[in-house]
Amino acid sequence: MRFSKFLKSSVQFKSPAVAITLAAASLMVLGGAFAFAQMSPAGSAKRIDSVVLSPSQQRAVQWTQGRQRSAKPLPTPIAKAMPGGAPKPAPSAPSGPRSLSASGAAKNVGQAERKTGDPNSIPLRWAGKFFFSKSDGDYLCSAQFIAPNIILTAAHCMRDDSTGQWYKDFVFALQYQRGQTTQQVTPKCYGLWNKWVHASDDDETHWHYDYAMILTEESSKTGNLGWQFNYDPSEYPTAVKVGYPADILDGEVVQMDGGPLTTPETRPGLVMLRHGNPKNASGSSGGAWIGNFSPAIGSGKNAVISVTSHHLGDETTVSYGPQFDQDFKGLLDYVQGGCK
């Protein structure tokens, strides 16, 4: 396990006001029961799609230890390198007056000692494995609590980006290590921006929306990471990538790799992390990128500033993630409100 100390920085930033247009609810069938869902056709205006599960649907999700261990790590998506490095247009931001943005502070429940790869350490104690099912079997990603009842992961761990099909049987195993967990929670509702679903493989803008949030009935037993959006990347010269890559200890122990954080000029809306570990890929999707990584609780420490989204070609030592802006806060507010 490799780990280095990284420079820390404080964050001050501004954000445009969030403007979200919600769609009328429709019914969809999930596993023989009904769930209220909001769906967006391809090419529609930007909005949030969500699914609300009934109590019986929540109880119906069952993952044994054997099923979890047989789940396959979801391969980290590979984006196409742009011909000649031509820049793509950045996602459009809603117009309106600018105001100071909000941030969430990390919160710890109980005491913990910090050790590399120890799920009882701060901030690893707020992360875990995220299990789900696709049409071809069971898979896993990485995820983490960012509020007492909110889990953050990658959109590609919850929904197909080309067909719009939602995956199912979601469960989050907090502090997962070698089959043991502190807590297993299922969604009450979940949502993501509809712009994640796109019509063209050459559309780069959808990567900016590769994050999703889940509302849980039960609060985290260990606390949660903080978060930041609309930050200036220069305020975070480094970050630490957390997750469960399958090529390290079979993905059974949480890992972390850090390095310089930059914004690629030819890929606006994204941040790039040069963590240097070629094995830190499959299974780590959705894992947090933590700014001001620290074994202690304090103002501005342990803030999630992105999640593992994808890499380019065979270069797995460099990862890309969405640069959180006002849309991140818009989704957080929406999901915290019960996806309605």
| Helix amount | under 10%
Order of helices and strands: EEEEHHEEEEEEEEEEEEEEEEEEEEH
The total count of helices amounts to 3
- Low-confidence residue ranges: 1-34, 83-87, 94-100
Strand portion, in percent?
25-35%
**Number of discrete domains:** 1
Task: Say which CATH homologous superfamily is assigned.
Answer: Trypsin-like serine proteases
CATH topology: Thrombin, subunit H
Give Rg in angstroms.
18 Å
Distance between the termini: 43 Å
Mean pLDDT: 83
**Which architecture per CATH?**
Beta Barrel
CATH class: Mainly Beta
Number of strands: 24
Largest sheet: 11 strands, mixed
Apparent shape: globular
Secondary-structure class: mainly beta
Structure keywords:
7% helix; 9-stranded mixed beta sheet; 340 residues; disordered N terminus; 11-stranded mixed beta sheet; 3 helices; mainly beta; Thrombin, subunit H; single chain
Task: Write a structural description.
This protein is mainly beta and 340 residues long. The chain has one domain: Thrombin, subunit H, CATH 2.40.10.10. Helix content is 7%, strand content 34%. The longest helix is centred in the C-terminal third of the chain and has 11 residues, at 326-336. The protein is globular and about 45 Å long. The termini are far apart.
